[in-house]
Write a structure and sequence with these properties.
It is built from eight helices and 16 strands. The protein has one domain (2-253): Metallo-beta-lactamase, Chain A (4-Layer Sandwich), CATH 3.60.15. It is an alpha/beta fold. The protein binds zinc ion (ZN) (2 copies). Residues 56, 58, 123, 125, 145 line the site of one zinc ion.
């Protein structure tokens, strides 16, 4: 399995997951031209995608949908609630003429080489989900918009080799920052976004002893800094005695973070 982040943050989210010559895209939230360019740069052009998984209908997750040609008839996988929300771009319903596959939260679906399980998350879309994607004995958990660190997320996070998880804001920067009061309350509330500290506490609770790769995602440009997010999460892991994991911060754009573990070796009995 190979995972490449190409966009992360409130201006756009997109992640490519590849295995055995197939490629999934999780969210398509940056402008279409930018998305086309980024996909080409990582060698996963839009024309070669097997499916697009959507976490929810907010624009930072769907704005680039027109980079995927309708003629390809590629499936868009989403919760029934995201489909029913009928998001629009420029007045046009974005799923018109698209092949939509509804995947209820809690269910698992085979998509070519991948097995995809969706999990409900508290965030203020119609029916927002995160995904656990498995292929070739490896798995990646993608939870980019989380209002709260709910207990049902422990299992998918604990079982994943790579965790792509939101560290949206530093609480001090948010509350001292320029956002209007109602927006601060939304971001910090149970239907908003996960803070650095909440992310670190959650990881400290769920991660096993070591060897996991953690990518901090969906950082706010206004209320966070990469260094601040990484330090907060590493500190909380350290306090919980968790020192054997790799923690990195996703860049806003570009494929500088790619995860491609060595293929699993079959154990040979003697
Ligand atoms: Zn959202
Ligand atoms: Zn978002």
């Amino acid at each position: 399995m190979r995972v490449t982040s190409i966009a992360s943050g409130s201006s756009g989210n997109a992640l490519v997951v590849e295995h055995a010559g197939e490629a999934l895209l999780v969210d398509c939230g940056c402008p279409p031209r930018k998305l086309t360019q980024l996909l080409r740069e990582v060698g996963a052009p839009a024309t070669g995608l097997s499916a697009i998984l959507l976490t929810h209908e907010h624009s930072d997750h769907i704005a680039g949908i027109n980079a995927i040609p309708r003629a390809l008839d590629v499936p868009f996988v989403m919760t029934p609630g995201t489909h029913a929300a009928q998001p629009r771009l420029g007045g046009t319903p974005i799923f018109a003429g698209r092949r939509v596959v509804e995947q209820p939260c809690g269910s698992t679906r085979s998509l070519g080489a991948f097995e995809v399980t969706s999990f409900p998350v508290s965030h203020d879309g119609a029916e927002v989900c995160g995904y656990l994607i498995a292929a070739g004995g490896r798995s990646v958990a993608v939870f980019t918009d989380l209002g709260a660190a709910e207990p049902h997320l422990h299992e998918p996070l604990a079982g994943a080799d790579l965790l792509v998880i939101e560290a949206n804001h530093d609480e001090g920067l948010l509350w001292r920052g320029p956002y209007p009061w109602h927006l601060k309350r939304r971001v910090a509330g149970p239907l908003g976004h996960l803070s650095n500290d909440a992310c670190g506490l959650l990881l400290g609770q769920v991660l096993p002893d070591g060897g996991r790769e953690v990518w901090l995602a969906h950082l706010s440009r206004t209320n966070n800094r990469p260094q601040v997010a990484a330090s907060a999460v590493k500190n909380l892991l350290h306090i919980n005695g968790q020192t054997g994991h790799t923690v990195q911060v996703l860049p806003q754009y570009g494929a500088s973070l790619r995860w491609e573990p060595a293929p699993l070796q079959l154990a040979l009995g003697l």
